[in-house]
Amino acid sequence: MSGIEGKVVAITGASSGIGAATATHLAERGARLVLGARREDRLNEVVDRITEQGGSAVGVVVDVTRRDDLKRLTDTALDHFGRLDVLVSNAGTMAISPFDELRQDDWDAMVATHITGLLNGIGAALPVFRRQRSGQFVNVGSTAAYVVKPPQAVYAATKTAVKVLTEGLRQESGPDLRVTLVSPGFTHTEGVGKGGSPEAAAAAVRQRDEIAMPPSAIASAIGYAIEQPDGVDVSEIVVRPTVQA
Ligand code: NDP
């Protein structure tokens, strides 16, 4: 199946920012969506908006750090739509801080969300894709995996892991599956400056407000990777604001 129309796409972190923009973009092009995040109220707003506009979306409260939650997300796709064509692993947290502040809970959350969360998605979707003999993983990385800047080392390390896991998965996935890494640069979302050290957060928000791209820029990159014909794997897309070094 090529194009976006009719595809069943599950998206983690769909309650705001890039995930919500991707849901809107894909719904407008006829995808059927299963949307996951922890904040039920914000998730429902996205689902309701899509449904009111004639799209097809179901929300599932999901914490990607929990294996069973990801299984529930993929099971919902199978129960509601009979299949799963794409899993977009987008959930993330950018709680950046200098090492000296020892914000170890934030370190743990980034490891759990970006690495364990991604693996939980692979664990839930891979057997489905193998049974169907088709499917696509779209993993959201970051330009932080390409240029490490203080005080982002832990965040950058976890996004480097996303990049490595994506490439390894692609090499093992064989001809039936597609595996895509989409690495955004500065994007205007509420996630920038949320958590981490107050100083680092304030600096990130200032930079975001000066240079960030709209989340629709990433949504359309994800859409591009999904809409290619079955035999075409867009392995990697990096999208930055032109002014980002
Ligand atoms: P947002 O904060 O707007 O979105 C993050 C999403 O992830 C929310 O929907 C949040 O929902 C969800 N989320 C966080 N933790 C979990 C969890 N444990 N389980 C399930 N969902 C979770 O920020 P962005 O849209 O900017 O971030 C989306 C992705 O893009 C992240 O992976 C981020 O690292 C990446 N990125 C963003 C950049 C930027 O400049 N904005 C640049 C590079 C990469 P909820 O709280 O409801 O669970």
TrEMBL record:
Write down what this protein is called: SDR family oxidoreductase
Enzyme superclass (EC): oxidoreductase
CDD domains assigned: SDR_c
Key words, A-Z: Oxidoreductase
Family recorded in the similarity comment:
Belongs to the short-chain dehydrogenases/reductases (SDR) family.
Q: PANTHER family per the record?
A: RETINOL DEHYDROGENASE-RELATED, SHORT-CHAIN DEHYDROGENASE_REDUCTASE FAMILY PROTEIN
Q: Does the keyword Oxidoreductase apply?
A: yes
Fetch the Gene3D superfamilies from UniProt: NAD(P)-binding Rossmann-like Domain
Gene Ontology MF terms: oxidoreductase activity
Question: Any idea of its EC number?
Answer: 1.-.-.-
Residue ranges of the Ketoreductase domain? 7-187
Please give one Pfam family short name: adh_short
